[in-house]
Structure formats: C-alpha cells, structure tokens
Amino acid sequence: MTQITLAALVAALALAAPAAAQAPATAQSLENTHPAGLDPAGMDAKIKPGDDFFAYVNGGWVAATPIPADRSAWGISAELVELTTARVADIIQTAAKAPPGSEARKIGDYYSSYLDEARIESLGLKPIQPTLARIAAIKTKKDLAAEFGRELRADVDALNSTNFDTSHLFGLWVEQDLNDPKRYAGYLLQGGLGMPDRDYYLSANAHMAADRTAYKAHIAKVLTLAGMAEPEATAQKIFDLETAIAKVHAPRAESEDVLKANNPWAMADFAKKAPGLDWTTYFAAAGLSTRPQFIVWHPKATTGEAALVASQPLATWKAYLAYHQLNDFSNVLPKAFADERFAFYGTTLSGTPQQQVRWKRAVNATNGALGEAVGKLYVAEYFPPEQKAKVQAMVADLIAAFRVRIDKLDWMAPATKAEAKRKLSTLKVGVGYPDRWIDYSGLKVVAGDALGNAQRAELFEYRRNLAKFGHPVDRGEWSMTPQTVNAVNLPVKNALNFPAAILQPPDFDARNPVAMNFAATGATIGHEVSHSFDDQGAMFNADGQLKNWWTPADLAHFQASGKALAEQYSKYRPFPDITLNGEQMLSENIADIAGLNAAYDAYRIANGGKEGPPLNGVSGDRQFFMAFAHSWRTKTREALARQRAVTDGHAPAEFRADTVRNMDAWYAAFDVKPGEKLYLAPAERVRIW
Ligand SMILES: [Zn+2]
C-alpha cells in the first residue's frame, strides 16, 4: 500500500559513503536547502513530453547525477532520507546526554553500542553464543518446534507496509480482525527464506540463477566465519532446504489476494491441516497457547512448511537455524560478518558497490528499535504545528475532491456511492505523527551490548504486539515512524499515515504554487485515499470489515478498467528481457491514476475552478504535471531494479510518472499528438475514478 516501498527505503538506507565520512553530518547540513519552484536545469527539453514524460522533466538531472557509491538508488526520496538521517543522528547525540534510564538515554545507548565497532570486534561471537548453544542443544523434533516458536517475531505485515519477508519459519502480524473490527487477530504468514522471494530459488532467469550461486557461496562464507565444520556441504543442504521451502511458498501476487488469505484456523485445526510440526509446542514457546485462532494467510505454505519440518533431517534444520541467526544479526557481529552480509544483500542483490558508513547504519538500526521514541524528538524539532495545519487543509481539499468524483461516477450504483461516502467520512487521516506514542519503558537497553540490544528490541516489539490481544483496536496507531520518507494506507483500520519527514521540500513547499504542491504531495495523499476505494479497498467496508460493498455491476466495470490498466503496464519493459507484471502492480497503478486525478481537481478547486497562474511563463496545468513527474525523480541500479520488478507491488518510478498519459488535461497542456510514444486514444485512457 505504500507509496514508495519498504524495500526501496531499506535499499536507500543500506548504502555507503566514503570511509572518511565516519562522523555524523555537521549542523549546517541539517537545513533543507531545496530551492522553490520548477527545475528547468533538470529537464531535457530535446525530448518531446509525449514521447517520454519522465525524461522530459528529469532527463537533465538523470544525465548529470551519478548514484552515490553507497546507494542502490538515488533521487528525491533518497535525498530526503539522507537529510532526515543526519537530523536524526544529531537528535540522538543530544539524547545520549540524557539521564540513565530515561527514554532518550535508551536511544543514545542503543546508537552508541551499535556504533562501537571496536567493542563488537573484541567480543567476537560471544554475544550470540547462548543462542547458538541453544540451537546446538536441540535433540528432537519437539525441541525444534519449540525453537521455531521461540524465534517467532512480529516482523511481517500483509496489508499496511506489505512486508512478506521473514527468515523465520513463519511471521506474525497483529492487526484488526478482517472479520470483526472490534478485536485484533493474529495473522500467520509464510517465511523461512534467505533471499527476497520464491522466484529467486525457482526462476529460470539467468540473473536469478547467478544469484543462487552467489547465495550458496554466501551461506558457506557465513558458516566459515563462524568456524562451523564442512561449510560447503552444509551450505548446500541449507540451500536445498530453502529451495524446498520456496516450492511451497505462495507467489507474491497470491500473497496480495486478501480473499485467499482470510483463513481462520482454530488451534485444533493446525495439527489436522498442517501436520508435521508440533504446533502445541510451537505456540507454547511463542507465548500464544491461549489464542483461540489465527488467520492463516498462506494455508498451502503453512501445510508445506510443517511437512518439511517432519521430512527434513534434524541436523539440516539445526544448521539452517544457526546460519539464519548469524545472517540476521550480522550487522552487530564482527566486521567480517557485516561486510559479507553487505556483499551479498547490498552488492549482489541490490547492485550497491559500497556499504553505508557505520553511523548511518546505526541511525537506521536505532530507528528500527526505538522508532517512535526517536520520532517524538524529530517532530518536536522539525514539524511545527503550522506545517501540520497546512497539510491537513490539503487533505480536506482532497477528500472533498473525492466526494465530488464519487457523485459524478456514472457506473456506480447509488447504494455503493452512499457506502463510498460513508467510508470517506470515517477515514482516519494521520498527519505527521501518531495520536499516542509507543511506551518503551519495557525495553532494556544495555550500553556496550549491541547484539543483546538488537535481540531485546525484536522481542519487545513481538511482546508489544501480543499485548494488543484482548484490547480494543487503536485506530490511531501508526505503522510508520514520523521520520520515514513515505506514506501508507492501513486498509483494515480505514486509516492513512503521512509521516512528517515526507511533508517537506521539494514535495511539499509552502513557497510553491498550489498546483505544484497538489501534484507532488496531493497526488500522494490522493494515492493513499484511493486505496480505500480500489480493488483492495472495495473489499473492506467503512468499519474495516472484509465485506465487499460493491454491486456485481460496479465490480465488473472496475475489473474491466483494471484489466486495461494491467495491460498498459505489462507492455513496459524496464530491461529487454523483463516486462512489468501489470497484475502484480495493479492496485498501486490504480491508486496513482486516482490520486493524480483527485489532486488535479483539488488544485483546480483551490484556484476557484480555473487553471492556476503561470510561473516563469509555465502554465498552471504544466506546473502541475511537471511537479508530478519531478516527484518521481529517481535513478536505480540495475540489480535493484530487477529485484523490484519481481518483489514490488509498485511500478518503477519512470513509469509511475507516465500515469499522466491517462489524463485528458495532460494532452491539452502539452499538446500531445497521435504517433507520440505515450499517446493513448481517448478510449484507451483508463478512467476509474
Ligand atoms: Zn500505494
């Protein structure tokens, strides 16, 4: 549901800078120095807007801007991530001086422990030894089930940040129940892979075959570094086991199908439907024995993985568990582990040549462990109330524009329109930061214990989620931190989060004409609002219940439009051997069209129903479309672009900029003619909202 992806952010953050830059940025670089207005120098005026709109607006910038060596992608979002990281580092250093035991001091201690590479080096494998010894002591499949249960974490999210990737056997997500809005459900998702998706293990594509060879070598290297016996032979066994897991995994497109995912299993169902794993022992070790049921998101994978627990040798599972512990915590193990992890995940899988400097990784890790504690300090410094009020006013305009668009739809039944408007009125739009902050008093942070801190933070997050059971659903809870450069729709809660860090120049700039702000930030808001009304949103009513509120005729029209859009995107080729999967990206592409349309209406409403005034000779409508394409200004390394084409629900940025070809106003603004590459005849332009 996210506008950018988590993978993109992680990749953007997982980048390196020159080794000399081992100290955090100075205070001077904490200012947002982005100039106001359009950026003529970043354009490529030789290109016709109708041939390649992304390149017309961004071609000059693309040609002149290298991707920094420590980055797998670079652009506006990455720049804001960089600025925000420097600001957060500054905040953390102040926090480090707070009294011991305070929340601020936890932030400081977490960061400095992570940063202290000399100490991490001197401790060697000692901090992870108890975990490895626990795994080594496993003697039976019952012990194994207990270990799987002990390792369960709240590290996946099926509908909000859409993160389906966990190296644990399964992942837990705690969110409002799809079938009963008044309570929380525990969702159990497939897991267990070390590479990002089953395709990496199974696809015949030559790039993925090469990734497999590299991954096997990576496993062997990790085992070698840990001094394990027969690393090559063991790596082969672990790799074969993961390949067997991949074979029972649901593909990404299926993971996104909520109707296939709504499978409530009572406790007693697990042994019957997924024999092979001692579920009683598993749930007891996970602290979940008293749960009456779970929603099993991937039933076939759950059955398949449980069967593998029974059929595969205990010794292989033990080696697999030890490897994953080392692999998951590599960044807080000696440098050789962290470097090896980056060599595979950073360079091989994402194409990034150089690892990010330690302090940036430490900021990232602190954000992961104590995100809202950091966010509280960030907001106090960088998100004044007047900024929040301005964005809230834009949100109100956008929602008004949606209301009008719904009224005007000729294909939607009156009853459906009424429910759509009810859903708009109950939509909870969060701007900047959450209503209430997470209480971190239960998290113990020990100075000098980087690995222990990381383990305790994961466990704290897990227990925090378990504690939600039995309490009313908190619709004000956020799934992103305020210092995240992104935005998200939470479909089950019928809520949106717009973090403070994305609400700054160049995307949102109070100095710019409203046309530009509505295109860059308003289209993002519209994108997220529209998720409440897209193919996913149509399945959740105003209360967040999984209950389709459309008539069959509404749905038929919507699906036909969706099919046309999927076909439009399936024709795009980011590389000669790859076409985009329009089905996999359909929800996001619909949201892009709907968001852009609503943003256009809202900008016109804000100008009294007329085109906005020109800026340096550029018409209001041109400003609008150019600011939209500008907001997608990004360059991505090939390896990461290939990874995203498989795992991402979003189209690559340059194709998202081309959303404009579905809007009549774009043709008028740039005089786009038949024969130009992006030209679509009026009947081929997809109009959904
Ligand atoms: Zn989205």
How would you describe this protein?
- This protein has a 4-stranded mixed sheet. A 3-stranded mixed sheet has the order 6-8-7, with helices on one face.
- It has about 700 residues and is an alpha/beta fold.
- It is about 50% helix and about 5% strand.
- The model is unreliable at about 1-20 (pLDDT under 50).
- Helix 6 (about 130-135) packs antiparallel against helix 16 and helix 9 runs antiparallel to helix 17.
- The protein has 28 helices and 9 strands.
Strand percentage: 5-15%
The biggest sheet amounts to: 4 strands, mixed
Mean pLDDT over the residues: 92
Biggest β-sheet: strands ordered side by side in the sheet: 2-3-5-4
Q: What small ligands are held by the chains?
A: zinc ion
Instruction: Give Rg in angstroms.
Output: 25 Å
> DSSP helix count?
28
Approximately how much helix is present in the residues?
Answer: 40-55%
What is the overall silhouette?
Answer: globular
Quote the distance from N terminus to C terminus: 18 Å
Count of individual beta strands: 9
Structural class: alpha/beta
Note the quaternary state here.
single chain
Unreliable stretches (pLDDT < 50, length at least 5) are 1-22
Which secondary structure elements does this structure contain, and how are they paired or packed?
Blueprint: H1 6-13, H2 53-64, E1 73-75, H3 76-95, H4 103-115, H5 117-123, H6 129-136, H7 141-151, E2 170-177, E3 180-190, H8 199-202, H9 206-225, H10 231-248, H11 252-255, H12 258-261, E4 264-266, H13 267-273, H14 279-285, E5 293-296, H15 299-311, H16 314-328, H17 335-348, H18 358-382, H19 385-408, H20 414-426, E6 428-432, H21 450-466, E7 488-490, E8 495-499, H22 514-531, H23 552-570, H24 586-606, H25 620-631, E9 634-636, H26 638-647, H27 653-657, H28 664-670
Parallel strand pairs: 3-5, 6-8
Antiparallel strand pairs: 1-9, 2-3, 4-5, 7-8
Helix pairs in contact: 3-4, 3-18, 4-18, 6-16, 7-14, 9-10, 9-17, 10-15, 10-16, 19-20, 19-22, 19-24, 22-24, 22-25
